[in-house]
Specification:
245 residues, alpha+beta, OB fold (Dihydrolipoamide Acetyltransferase, E2P), 2 domains, five-stranded mixed β-barrel, 6 helices, 34% helix
Length: 245
Amino acid sequence: MPTYRDQAVVLRTHKLGEADRIITMLTREHGKVRAVARGVRRTSSKFGARLEPFAHIDIQLAKGHALDVVAQAQALHLFGDALAANYPSFTVGEVMLETCDRLVSEENEPALQQYHLLLGALNALATGTSDGPRPATMILDSYLLRALSIAGYAPHLGECWRCGNPREWFSPSGGGAVCADCRPSGSVRPSEGAWYLMGLLLAGEWQRTADAPEPVCAEVSGIVAAFTNWHLEHSLRSLPFVDRA
């Protein structure tokens, strides 16, 4: 069978038969790929933890009729080891993997931006951002805003997107900033600090988020969660488990 090689982040796994698993991963060059890992559930398996969620791997796959087959896998970064020791980071990571799985729906369609964004977010969770440690929930909010933007659901944070008047409210269903006259039901009225922080997280400007007050961070998390659940149509199953203490 013809083979190909790529780098990937493992998103989820499913049992298959007595000893196999179906591995769903986001690859660098081939988009989202589902492949069978033969015998991976046996204690003698050569793959071990390399094909578990959160693993960043170099993988060789053999083309199959229905599903490709894992021929070889080498660990590049096992983010799960660091995240498993920190419950808030682990739950946030689970939301990231589920979100990526939901947003990248077309298998074998290139998704390079989503791949790099997910890899960077997991690295920030495990080791901290380039500008120092940040709360796991702040990293999650930035990831969600940016992942949705790549997928075509960028929140509008400027003037009212309907009439151009100054923003006052944020509408998850309406796509972002609206004025008092244009706001639909379900809108919320963010503080100025929340508007500012959302803009920083969307742009990934970590150096300016160090002193964000906890109440503002909590406010932004609620807005981002509502915005994400609306545009994904079905609520994320892992999001309620995020530790926001």
